[in-house]
Amino acid sequence: MFYLGIDVAKAKLDCCLLDMTNGKRSTKVVANSRAGLTDLLGWLGKRHTEPSHVHVALEGTGVYHEMAACGLHDAGLSVSVVNPAQVRAFATGMGVRTKNDMVDSHVLARFAMHAQPMRWSPPAPEARILQALMARREALAQDLQRERNRHEKAEITAPTALVLHSILETIEFLERHLASLQREIDDHIAAHPGLKANLMLLQSIPAVGPQVGRTLLAIMHARHFDSAEQLAAYLGLVPVQRQSGSSIQGPSRLSKAGPPKVRATLYMAAVVAKRYNPHIKALCERLAARGKSTMSILGAAMRKLVHLCFGVLKTRQPYRANYVAIA
């Protein structure tokens, strides 16, 4: 068996191959490009590696790892996209204090060998397109909000007419482009029965509207989750305790390890769900009776909402207020 650790950068891939048949280690640096991947596969072939006998571990680094992960998966290698925090903790446990690209690739290869992380599969093309469209929509929405903030300040500071006209013109352009992009997202979902059916299931849950539904739809189709707990952990909604003996009794808090924009969207949905979703309303009332703080209650509501979303997609049944099994 061979274990290949890849430290991903924007321009290059630092690779470390562990050959378990003889205990040897080989290293190579290739460009983070399709030509670089071809070079890497040729290098692996010269070492008499069968693709099915190579387990690759690389960290999820924004978008820079995606081409390498997809290309190696398509070539028949087993690929794991691992959490950088887990790898860093593993390196600390190994006593590795040096941090550079080649050392990191060796740590990743050792992590793949010892931890045997879950194999990764690329999402379906329609899920990848939806994820890209949603990311672009979020970027445009942020740009639009910034221009609206500038307009608000401009009205107070009384700038020249030319500046005010420029701001209003930009706002009009962004609003038009955002509306056009939203239609493209809706058309894309409508054109794929699987996406459309899942969005309808998600929106059957009280407090899950179109925006929350589309956001979770993109996430749940782009990654594989075995359980609702895994989904909640990915989104940073699991409680983290800080207690030790009698001297440290810190309050629990959300891990906040996942994408903050998604949590912000879920926060507003939880505020609504606290009043209108029967399961979440009952949960919030129980927690309030136990003296929990408002933020703790909303964190639990966000987590419950995610569990409900996972539940309707797994059971393929729309939300039912009297369904005790998912309460």
Automatic annotation (TrEMBL):
Provenance organism: Pandoraea oxalativorans
Superkingdom of source: Bacteria
Keywords for the protein's UniProt record, in alphabetical order: Coiled coil
GO aspect biological process, one term: DNA transposition
Cited InterPro entries: Transp_IS110-like_N (IPR002525), Transpos_IS110 (IPR047650), Transposase_20 (IPR003346)
GO molecular function: DNA binding; transposase activity
The protein's name in its UniProt record: Transposase
Any Pfam family the entry gives: Transposase_20
Ranges in coiled-coil conformation: 127-191
Domain Transposase IS116/IS110/IS902 C-terminal: 201-283
Coiled coil is among the record's keywords: yes
Membrane spanning stretches: none
Residue span, Transposase IS110-like N-terminal domain: 4-152
